[in-house]
C-alpha cells in the first residue's frame, strides 16, 4: 500500500510534470472508482492543473478550483505516460485501469489497481475537506512535534501498532512504515502507548521523523514506476520475514492476520520474546 513517502513522491512528480498543463479529457474505465457524482468528471475538462499535494495518504491534483482526490488503497497505483494513448479504454473485464487523465501535450496518467479486491477511490470536489476521509484525518505524521505525539499517546490503551496506523490519530503511516518506526524505536508492536515512559516517546518521535524523512528523500525524484522497488529496498524488517535483522542479526519474525501481516525483531523490540502468531496473541511467556 502506498504510504506517506510514496504519495509525497507521486505529488512531487505531478508538480514537476503536470502543473501548467490542461486537462483535455478524463476517461472512466471503472465507474465504481468515482465516489462523487457532482461535479461530474467532465467538469475537469479544459481546466489547468495548478498544483499537486498530499493529505495523509490521499493524493490531491488541483485543477483551477476543483480537486481530483485519489486514495490508492492497497493495490492502486498512478502510472505516468509521456505518450498517452488517445484511444478510450475499454471498461470491465480484467483490465486493471480505473481512470485515465489526458493532459495537454499528449501526456497524462492512469490510475490502476491490481487484484480482485478493489479499494482504489477518486473524488472530484471543490475542497479537499469535502472528502470524508480527509476531514477525519489526524495530524500529519511529518508535522507532529514531540509534545503533540505525547498528547496523542496519553491514555491510549490500544496496541501501538494499531495507533500508528489509525489515520484518525496520525495521518500517513501504514503497515510497512509503522513496522519500520517501531523497529527503529525498539518498541513492541503490542506495547500500550499510555504506558510508554518519556524516553520511549522520545525514541518513537525520533524514529517517526527519521524513518519517514529518509523514505521521502529516497522516493522524491524517482520515476513513478520505480517507487515500489525503492520502498522495498529501504525497509529493514517489513516484508523481510525469515531474514536476519540488520541491527542484531536475529531472525525477523511475522504475525499474520486474515488479510495482512506485520514483521518485527524479537531481540530489538520484545526483549527476545516472540509474539504468538494469532489475532489476540500475547507475548509468549
UniProtKB/TrEMBL annotation:
Pfam families: Fapy_DNA_glyco, H2TH, zf-FPG_IleRS. Residues 236-270 form the FPG-type domain. Transmembrane segments: none annotated. GO terms for biological process: base-excision repair. SUPFAM superfamilies: Glucocorticoid receptor-like (DNA-binding domain) (SSF57716), N-terminal domain of MutM-like DNA repair proteins (SSF81624), S13-like H2TH domain (SSF46946). Its cofactor is Zn(2+). It catalyses: Hydrolysis of DNA containing ring-opened 7-methylguanine residues, releasing 2,6-diamino-4-hydroxy-5-(N-methyl)formamidopyrimidine. InterPro entries: FPG_cat (IPR012319), FPG_N (IPR035937), H2TH_FPG (IPR015886), Ribosomal_uS13-like_H2TH (IPR010979), Znf_DNA_glyclase/AP_lyase (IPR000214), Znf_FPG/IleRS (IPR010663). Residues 2-93 form the Formamidopyrimidine-DNA glycosylase catalytic domain. GO terms for molecular function: 8-oxo-7,8-dihydroguanine DNA N-glycosylase activity; damaged DNA binding; DNA-(apurinic or apyrimidinic site) endonuclease activity; lyase activity; zinc ion binding. Keywords: DNA damage, DNA repair, DNA-binding, Glycosidase, Hydrolase, Lyase, Metal-binding, Multifunctional enzyme, Zinc, Zinc-finger. It comes from the Bacteria. Belongs to the FPG family. This is Formamidopyrimidine-DNA glycosylase. It comes from Prauserella rugosa.
Amino acid at each position: 500500500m502506498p504510504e506517506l513517502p510514496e504519495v509525497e513522491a507521486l505529488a512531487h512528480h505531478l508538480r514537476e510534470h503536470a502543473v501548467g498543463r490542461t486537462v483535455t479529457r478524463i476517461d472512466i474505465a471503472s465507474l465504481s472508482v468515482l465516489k462523487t457524482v457532482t461535479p461530474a468528471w467532465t467538469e475537469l475538462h479544459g481546466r489547468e492543473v495548478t498544483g499537486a499535494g498530499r493529505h495523509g495518504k490521499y493524493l490531491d491534483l488541483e485543477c483551477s478550483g476543483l480537486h481530483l482526490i485519489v486514495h490508492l488503497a492497497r493495490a492502486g497505483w498512478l502510472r505516468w505516460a509521456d505518450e498517452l494513448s488517445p484511444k478510450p479504454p475499454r471498461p470491465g473485464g480484467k483490465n486493471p485501469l480505473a481512470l485515465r487523465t489526458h493532459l495537454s501535450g499528449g501526456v497524462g496518467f492512469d490510475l490502476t489497481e491490481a487484484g480482485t479486491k478493489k479499494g482504489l477511490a477518486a473524488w472530484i470536489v471543490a475542497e479537499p475537506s469535502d472528502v470524508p476521509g480527509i476531514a477525519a484525518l489526524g495530524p500529519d505524521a511529518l508535522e507532529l512535534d514531540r509534545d503533540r505525539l505525547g498528547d496523542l499517546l496519553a491514555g491510549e490503551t490500544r496496541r501501538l501498532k494499531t495507533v500508528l496506523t489509525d489515520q484518525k490519530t496520525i495521518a500517513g503511516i501504514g503497515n510497512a512504515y509503522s513496522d519500520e518506526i517501531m523497529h527503529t524505536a525498539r518498541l513492541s508492536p503490542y506495547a500500550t502507548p499510555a504506558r510508554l515512559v518519556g524516553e520511549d516517546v522520545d525514541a518513537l518521535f525520533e524514529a517517526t521523523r527519521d524513518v519517514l524523512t529518509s523514505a521521502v528523500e529516497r522516493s522524491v525524484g524517482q520515476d513513478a514506476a520505480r517507487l515500489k522497488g525503492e520502498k522495498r529496498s529501504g525497509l529493514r524488517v517489513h516484508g523481510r520475514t525469515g531474514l536476519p535483522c540488520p541491527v542484531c542479526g536475529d531472525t525477523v519474525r511475522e504475525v499474520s492476520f486474515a488479510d495482512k501481516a506485520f514483521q518485527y525483531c524479537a531481540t530489538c523490540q520484545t526483549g527476545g520474546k516472540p509474539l504468538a502468531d494469532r489475532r489476540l496473541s500475547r507475548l509468549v511467556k
